[in-house]
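note to self: the first set is below, dont mix up w the second
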Amino acid sequence: MDYRIDELENYTEEDAIQTILDEHPELRLLWENLSELFFEPVINGVNPVAHVYFEAIAETQIATGDPPEARDAMERLLQQGYTRHAARGAVAALLIPHLYDSLQNRKPFDIEGYTRRLRVLGTLLRLPERNDLCFCGSGWKYKRCCGPLGSIMTPSRFAGRLILGYGAYAGPEVLVDLPHDDPLLQLENKVYVADILGRNGLAEAAWAVLEENLSLVREWGDEKFLKRALQDLLELNHELEMELGGRAVPVVEELIEMATGEEELRDLLCDRADFMAAGGAVDEAHEAYRQILANIPHWHFGRYRYALFLLSYEMEEEGERVLRELVAAKETIDAETYREARGMLEDMMEGRRLEAEAEQRRLAEKT
């Protein structure tokens, strides 16, 4: 962003925040839902909201030239080949410890120390020895002045980049070499943003973030990434089925077309039936389950999933019958299905026992 002097008089923190969000689009929906969060949005030790705030403060300082050393540092780093994002990130990285020191120790912001360090930010070719005079000109020894700031005074070309996690689309060895706006890094970050939104109960916002990922990978045309983006939406619908209902039915249908094995296919068929029911099409879902079991009659875990479906939609007697049939067939079904069916039956019996005891207490209290 280039700044015209006549624009700077009205430059606000909100302008700066919009600039940061334009460069970090993966954070926009998180930012727009800040008022709805009920716990701090820390992701793998990183607070992306704080990242936006600090970058916005640095952006405002650079844009308005207050202090002028902030803009000078930006221009110097740009001349050295830093991107605008990395140069601002370097200024923000220097600002953060000064702000924390002021807030934690309840003392005035050290503007003298901050501007003195801004004047030499990015000029250091090698770190001084601990007992050398500090290169910033404070007159103190390096170990008592800029030493604790570590590598901040020799900023990375990736300063300001945000990595919220890894493993969804790429490993750390790949992400560490990507610039902040690389689409692969955006995909990875959005998975974690969707997770924090979902855990705050913001199902619609979480879904929208993962839909953005789906749109992005469709542009690439990479089936591996496409399948992962669809699976992310599927998993979110499983986690937040009460809020999202049958939103994932089209997603499951696309995954069914991409299924590569019988086990994957049959699980997806059950997923589709479950989401159909969650969306209100219970009768159609019931028929879908009947078709699945008719076509795969020896899939015992499928019968267990059918029992769960029945129990979820007030067909308890039939659901219990299916569970009892599975438990009775212990010697002929797989161990996982037997264990799950038996555990569900025991939970049902315990729930009924507790309800009966509660009813007895209520009757006793009346008499």
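second set (the one i keep forgetting abt)
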Amino acid sequence: MKLEWSHTVLNIKDSVKILQFYTKTLGFNLSDRGPLAENGPEIIFVSQDSDEHHQLAFIVGREDVDKSTSLNHLSFRVKTFDEVYEVKERLDSADVEYLPLCHGNALSLYFNDPEGNGIEVFFDTPWDVAQPQGVVWDTSLTEKEALEWVERTFEKEPTFAKREESAREFVNRK
């Protein structure tokens, strides 16, 4: 059996702020919304994939956004470095703080939505390296410069290898 990620549902308090952030800043599209049941809380569905009704859903009714949840973060893979840069530009435009973190195998941006839910957007590098790893990277670098930096930064790690040459189990081979 292979389970594939389908969607995440978050409890939220402010649907206006959340929808503004996920649609305008992150580029999701509203696909549906309505009450869960008669007189029940509203559920809102969003997606970026036309083949997926929803990748995220939000249930309006969270009482206190200051209380932590068990969610650490949602993680989204993008196919190109330019898409990471586009997310960075959108976050800059929306005045959202982010942490650019490189894991050797990925260049990531970590940030929070308006209610403090953690989000990661990442681009796979061509390498594999044992985890956990985390080094802040310079988002002003071009793709070529960033990948050269990743290689220089992680090449001394004993497990660092091209993804397709890695001997480690569970390496996502494309």
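remember for set 2: Helices lie at 15-25, 81-93, 143-154.
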